[in-house]
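[audit] Reproducing an earlier prediction to check determinism. Same input, same settings, fresh worker. If the tokens differ from the archived copy the diff job will pick it up downstream; this log only records the rerun itself.
[audit] input (224 residues):
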Amino acid sequence: MIRRGSEPAFQQLVREIQAWELSPGEVLDPVVLALRLESSEAEVTEALGRLAAAGLVESRDGQGVVAGFDSENVVELFELREALEVQVARLVARRHDPQVFARLRRELSAAREACASAADGGFDVFYTVVDRFDEAMDDAVANPFLIGALAPIRAHLLRVRRVNPSASRFLQALAEQIGIVDAILDRDEVLAMQTTAVHLRASLTSLLGRMGVTDAWSQHRTGG
């Protein structure tokens, strides 16, 4: 059972790992962390155990360290993400509340306009509406097992949000998500699945390019 006392330390460490304030390979000393986080050593140790279970921390030479994260990890996560989110899209096309998704479409369109005119490319605007999109999909699919399977994938991928963000990709991704919502509103399960797959492939290709990797998707899938 997870003690409630470990939750603040766990959430803070998750945020720091996702924001790269704690870098891959950095040693996580429970005594030092307990002092910094104003928690007990037992609470921090439990939080580190939860991070290890989520794959964000690994053991190295008997010490807990922040897990590494590279292009191979990204490809593997997207393979699993695609398998799950395509299924989510199919079910949401069947189960959604049209009013909720009509409103979501308006939010996506407004975000696209805001990103197009934002001096910084709209980073905060983009990820705010992306989180809203995920929430709407989770609520509509109403399947705690699917949502639970997606949660750790999303937690890992938050680590790459700030890898050379691309304003042009934000605009294209929002257009793709609008296409997904349109398919859902039409209750077209096949098109919802297809547009989701296209969106995820494009997101992966863009991300790998920003990480300095070319054609990694096809190389990984074909062994080339």
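[audit] rerun output stored. Observation attached for the diff report: The beta strands are 57-60, 63-66.
[audit] end
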